[in-house]
Write a structure and sequence with these properties.
The strands form two sheets. The protein has a twelve-stranded mixed beta sheet with strand order 8-1-10-19-18-17-16-15-14-11-12-13, with helices on both faces. Strand 2, helix 3 (about 65-80) and strand 3 (about 85) form a beta-alpha-beta unit. It is built from 15 helices and 19 strands. The protein has two domains: about 5-215, 3-Layer(aba) Sandwich (Rossmann fold); about 235-475, UDP-N-acetylmuramoyl-L-alanine:D-glutamate ligase (3-Layer(aba) Sandwich), CATH 3.40.1190. The protein is α/β, with parallel strands linked by helices and about 475 residues long. Helices cover about 35% and strands about 15% of the residues. Helix 6 (about 245-255) crosses helix 12 (about 420-435), helix 7 runs parallel beside helix 8 and helix 13 crosses helix 15.
């Protein structure tokens, strides 16, 4: 995804927020026709790049998304591209009718079925709330099958914008989706986002919307200060349990994500540990308490390899009762309950996958209903913690209402141990600066970047090793 310096271009809007943003532009003196021209010309340039002189078919619907299609078609026609419009339904909005009147190229019937190289879907946009009729679905599918390249404008037709749910079965897949004005939640939410291909955004002048979600951006990570030493860079304590493998994966990632010192507090010393990892044996919860009272500890990680017995719960309690910022992952999430957070004062990051999320919702008395972002926000507020809800469409929610949507990472991340690596990266960044939301964003970005660095069929160990070159890519 392109990186935008302007934060307006990173916001993610609901249908209602987008409507309000457009109304604000209109109230300030920009006409609906002008907004349509901005959107259509911007999207038309993306289509023109893909077409590269090849024949284009634009499928236009009755609303303003269809109007955008007529502007795109005229943009292509004016530049000498071979273009035809299929008007599935006659324009019904004034702006769409004006756009059609300005289009000087051919409008062809749906039968016989047009053939071309590039199909542009402007049938329906982000306001769609009902399934496509059978005849429109059949037309969309037939045109998709008869064209080599497929581009959706704003959103693919048949997708619900706010939820990312398909409103019909059997919708086409797209090579590119060009968002208009602002990102929508469907662009970053499964299952829709998996079908959209490359994502691009056209700026039409939409202003910043208060309280809007945003897309996870490449972090700007600073190098250590010239006079830095291991403690000023951050001492991270990782509290392990009876299963050292997961704990060591987290430590391996943490050693490469920027912390100056990583210490493992283990029930017993693992058979093999990296030379750089300091190990403190703490065979009982009392020894864990003693080990964690070191005032130099900047952050803690608990959960990977912890176990779920009574001893593990006491180890978790020791972490949560102490002040340093902490990350709770894996087994710690199975044990976490409101009473364990009653005295908690330091920043906290929770990193559940879907199964762990359901368990936490049960523990905290949450309904567990609605969109993933709404569920994550509810848990963030109930636990007063930053919640990173993992999955193919990972997202971050904070107690203050902040929501950050992550671009899809490589599906090769679906390997055992990748979550332990993510937890280690987040905890390492937390030890560096202590900001829970920032650490979650940095760790999540590094995790995806490391997967891209690894390529195909990597192990969690490979992923941990790739955190370092990913960090280098994020240096400011």
């Amino acid at each position: 995804m392109p990186q935008h310096l302007d934060p307006r271009l990173g916001q993610v809007l609901t249908v209602a927020q987008m409507r309000e943003a457009e109304e604000a532009l209109i109230a300030a003196g920009t006409s609906v026709d002008e907004l349509m021209q901005r959107a259509g010309h911007g999207a038309g340039e993306w289509v023109r790049r893909v077409a590269a002189g090849r024949k284009v078919t634009v499928l236009c619907g009755p609303g303003n998304n269809g109007g955008d299609g007529y502007v795109i078609a005229q943009h292509l026609f004016a530049h000498g591209n071979s273009v035809e419009v299929v008007a599935a339904i006659e324009p019904k909005s004034d702006a769409a009718r004006t756009a059609r009147s300005l289009y000087k190229g051919p409008i062809v019937p749906a039968e016989p079925l047009p053939h071309g190289e590039v199909l542009v879907d402007c049938l329906f946009g982000s306001g769609l709330a009902r399934a496509l009729s059978d005849d429109l679905l059949a037309l969309l599918a037939s045109l998709s099958a008869s064209h080599t390249h497929r581009i959706a404008i704003d959103l693919p037709s048949g997708i619900e914008s706010d939820s990312g749910k398909p409103l019909n079965e059997g919708l086409p897949r797209w090579d590119m989706t060009v968002a208009l004005g602002a990102w929508k939640f469907a662009h970053w939410t499964m299952p829709a986002c998996e079908t959209m291909g490359a994502l691009h955004l056209v700026d039409i002048g939409v202003g910043a919307t208060g309280g809007a979600a945003r897309v996870l951006a490449k972090p700007q990570i600073a190098s250590p200060a010239p006079d830095a030493h291991k403690y000023t860079r951050g001492l991270l304590a990782i509290v392990g349990g009876d299963m050292p493998g997961a704990t060591l994966l987290s430590a391996d990632a943490a050693l490469r994500a920027g912390a100056g010192y990583v210490k493992l507090v283990a029930s017993r010393r693992p058979a093999s540990v990296p030379h750089e990892l300091v190990v403190t044996e703490a065979p009982d919860p009392g020894a864990v308490w003693d080990s964690l009272r070191d005032r130099r500890i900047a952050a803690m990680l608990v959960g990977p390899g912890l176990g779920t017995g009574a001893d593990a719960r006491e180890r978790l309690r020791a972490v949560l009762d102490l002040a340093p910022p902490a990350v709770a992952d894996a087994d710690a999430l199975k044990l976490l309950s409101p009473d364990l957070l009653a005295e908690r004062q330091g920043a906290l990051v929770l990193t559940p996958h879907e199964g762990e999320m359901a368990a936490l919702e049960g523990s905290f008395g949450l309904a567990g209903q609605g969109a993933r972002r709404d569920r994550a926000l509810a848990l963030a507020k109930a636990s007063d913690a930053v919640v990173l809800l993992k999955g193919p469409d990972s997202l971050i929610a904070a107690p203050d209402g902040t929501v950050v949507m992550a671009p899809r990472a490589p599906s090769w991340l679906s390997v055992a141990g990748s979550g332990d690596v993510l937890a280690g990266a987040i905890a390492s960044r937390l030890a560096v600066h202590g900001d829970a939301l920032r650490a979650a964003e940095e760790g999540l970005w590094l995790h995806a970047a490391a997967a891209r660095h690894c390529g195909a069929a990597f192990t969690a160990g490979d992923l941990a090793s790739a955190i370092a070159p990913s960090l280098e890519c994020a240096l400011a």
